């Protein structure tokens, strides 16, 4: 079983700034770390490989220093990883990011299972996983709370849908996005990290991709653009309603009307 985990290097602090011209995060001078949700994806992949047999690889998109999260993943137990790095990829929105990752995956090979973390802490869109699956033509399951079984070419999972959990199965190959409650990630092995060789990390650039249209990547390939950035207004006003259900409903209706929300 070949498993690929999509990971990302994110700012290690929430105190980040955004370029007012391009609308993208200013990452220079900021310490970075593995996206926390991706750690759950790696642990899920390693557990499945241990249970059913197989190999785990990782892939990330970013500047050359993103190599650090690949090394961390390998120290956790992954076999190797790929960094998609090129200035043409810079400034990508979720759509262009997903397309770039899908192109990189096609160059890396074929996989039985692709795993993404639920979302990233710098973007919080929770859209890239599903969009990568769409570009690759794979079935996709999001918000996976547990992987329960694998048999007869189908993966059985439990997912969270709003206020209920659902058990479902999906045929391989597929892509799943793991929730943060799925497991407790293992720590990287210092011994493995010390023994790593250069060949566990490879770099792919725009020149390596089959699609050589630069308008499909980065800012040029982004369907959305940031027009204005501003801090949200803080509102500490609070209303409490009491009484019977009918009285609370009347009070809420009057409040909504007074605030001109309807």
What would you say this structure looks like, in words?
- The structure is a single chain.
- The chain is an alpha/beta fold and 262 residues long.
- It has one domain: 3-Layer(aba) Sandwich (Rossmann fold).
- It contains six helices and 13 strands.
- It has helices spanning 36-52, 67-76, 94-108, 128-136, 190-194, 245-258, and strands spanning 2-6, 9-11, 17-18, 25-26, 32-34, 55-61, 80-84, 113-117, 140-151, 154-161, 164-171, 174-178, 201-204.
- It has a nine-stranded mixed sheet with strand order 11-10-9-12-8-1-6-7-13.
- α3 (94-108) crosses α4.
- The N and C termini lie far apart (55 Å).
- The relative contact order is 0.18.
- The mean pLDDT is 91.
What structural class is derived from the secondary structure elements? Answer: alpha/beta
User: Quick one: biggest sheet?
Assistant: 9 strands, mixed
The number of helical elements comes to 6
Identify the CATH homologous superfamily.
HUPs
The succession of helices and strands, N to C, reads EEEEEHEHEHEHEEEEHEH
Kindly state the mean pLDDT as a whole number? 91
Q: What overall geometry do the principal axes of the alpha carbons give? A: globular
* Assigned CATH architecture: 3-Layer(aba) Sandwich
Q: What is the alpha-carbon Rg in Å?
A: 21 Å
Distance between the termini: 55 Å
CATH topology: Rossmann fold
Strand content: 25-35%
CATH class: Alpha Beta
The spatial strand order of the largest sheet comes to 11-10-9-12-8-1-6-7-13
**Uncertain segments:** none
The overall number of domains is 1
Percent helix range = 25-40%
Give the tally of β-strands.
Answer: 13
